[in-house]
Design a protein that fits this description.
151 residues; Nitrilase/N-carbamoyl-D-aminoacid amidohydrolase; 23% strand; globular
Length: 151
């Protein structure tokens, strides 16, 4: 697997700029299988305003990133504030496949500090198939393997 770890600094409180950056990075990575962006990349890690920047992974806000994945045939994992249908916001990562489809989502399960006040915690570690690999840990936990991985 050829993966790009896009350890970029997002523009705080500028969803449009961060969507453009992510789309451009994905577009430049056509020879890669997967591009991984940081936690809360779309809004920047700014807990004061997560509600203002919460989006639906299938919504129009991140459509340019889904389209870039499809054009470049590259999968992506993208950190964002997820607007939950039941209300509230989750600190999430969306898994986009190389066709630009949402292949799955992860909602951070172990919140700490102020995150506990701002986010709804996830309740599962469901594996996702992406770029020919399986991401997630739920299957390992069922087999009794500690969270740090197989030892």
């Amino acid at each position: 697997m050829n993966a790009v770890l896009a350890q970029l600094e997002p523009v705080r409180r500028d969803l449009a700029a961060n969507v453009r950056t992510a789309s451009e990075v994905v577009g430049r990575c056509a020879r890669s299988d997967l591009v991984v962006f940081p936690e809360l990349f779309l809004s920047g890690y700014d807990l004061e305003v997560v509600e203002d920047f919460a989006v639906d992974p299938e919504g129009d806000e991140i459509a340019p990133i889904r389209e870039a994945c499809a054009r470049a045939s590259v999968a992506a994992i993208l950190g964002y504030a997820e607007a939950l249908a039941c209300g509230g916001v989750a600190n999430s990562a969306v898994f986009l496949d190389a066709r630009g489809n949402v292949a799955g989502s992860y909602r951070k399960t172990h919140l700490f500090g102020e995150e506990k006040e701002r986010f709804v915690a996830g309740d599962s570690l469901t594996p996702v198939e992406l770029a020919g690999r399986r991401f997630g840990a739920d299957d390992l936990l069922r087999r009794g393997v500690p969270r740090g991985g197989a030892r």
